[in-house]
Amino acid sequence: MAAVDLGSNSFHMVVARIHHGQFIILDRLREMVRFASGLSSDGYLDNQSQDKALGCLRRFGQRLHDMHAGNVRVVGTNTLRKARNAYGFLAAAEAVLGHPVEVVSGMEEARLIYLGVTYHIGSEPTSNLVVDIGGGSTELIIGEGREPRRMGSLSLGCVRLSNKFFRTGRLSRKRFDRARLAAQLELRPICATFRRLGWDRAIGSSGTVRAAAEVAQQMGLVERGVSLAAVESLIDAMIDARHVEDLDLPGLSPDRAPVFPGGVAILVEIMNNLSVDSMDVTDGSLREGLLYDMFGRMHHHDPRERSVEAMQRRYHIDGKQARRVETTALALLEKVEGQWQLDEEQVRPLLRWAAMLHEIGLDIAHARYHQHGGYLLANADMPGFGHLEQQLLATLVARHRRKLDDMSLDELPERWRGPLLRLIVLLRLAVLLNRTRSRVTQPDVGVICGPQSLQLLLPRTWYAENPLTQADLGQEQAWLQTRGFELSLGTLAAVQETSAS
Hints:
This protein is an alpha/beta fold. The protein is built from 19 helices and 14 strands. The protein folds into 3 domains: 2-103, Nucleotidyltransferase, domain 5 (2-Layer Sandwich), CATH 3.30.420; 107-287, 2-Layer Sandwich (Nucleotidyltransferase, domain 5), CATH 3.30.420; 302-500, Orthogonal Bundle (Hypothetical protein af1432). Helix 7 packs across helix 9. The longest helix is centred in the middle third of the chain and has 25 residues, at 173-197. 41% of the residues are buried.
């Protein structure tokens, strides 16, 4: 199994195998890409940064070349969340890696970090504060054992803060004071809540905290981990150096030095504002969290399932109706997935989740409830889901009924546009065929499909017994036609007679 983390400062890859439920690390690769430095003020990644990143991924891709797609997860974080031209880069990245790239939300990044940290330190039932200062964002999580209770993701990272306050390389008390104030302002909205919840142990993860701990230990400021007093001493030492190029701190690598001042300014304010006197340091991080998350999915502990079930409860979804629609939708998918060349591993769970949540918007209003549902799913925190998965799910739910002539799939990766339209068709038909919300078992449904067409075959007597659904299917033909998709209706008896002759 392999996990790849496209961070805002460094790209990481870890390859491991599972032995008796534990991971044995086989390979680690890391390159300092400093991706966030290429993000302009108007939100566009420059060509130089993209080229550097793709060069790194091309090297990673060689290691991943023969690995099964289901055993590899690649995630992008803050810089790709913010980049307005991310889709173009993602298409190129997927081409050189040979595997899809998920862009995860800040909350999902925090969940995966906590998972990686707690598996690394063990599952003692203690309350933990986990701090991860990345290149573009900072994640703070409070949890009990392996379960996160409160998560925060701040637009505050070592690359971003260093570029803003130390771009020229000059190090002064005044510049550090400004950087620290900026960090305080970002932290202020979450500090009261985090302090109220409390924790037994503070743990630092990722590059900045580990680098600060390494330097502090080599300077003799602490024996283990990192303390608030030691971090203040690191700032004094940097101010004495006066310039990044003159930093000569033991244990600080040359490629870390340009972003170290910004990272330490964030760390000292986290410790100050949350009253953390000392912090342990761990090697567990996002990429280890990805490995354990993949392992959980393989063994039916998928956090996406829990997210969908939680949304059903929160928005009072009629579970029986959801299951009826799910059963019909998956039965239709089974009949067409071969001819439509749909990847069952990718589309089946997506269609099933959409069926389970298609009525989520009814808790707001019946009018345009499909649109309400799409909005909720596009904007909710759903642990386990990447941005693209959530966008696909939201689009399915938002388009499961009514007109389609204003629908645009242009914002989606090209590889998903055709398959998603076909899934929309299947979900719409499943909803129509269960409109009566009847407990009566649905009749066998036959289908004949082409690239942009589907003929729905039902028993001859069914049409006479279900005039409302027959009228709905007639309207559906017109709505699908606006998308260039042809829906036709036939009877199973007619097809059987034709086959016999």
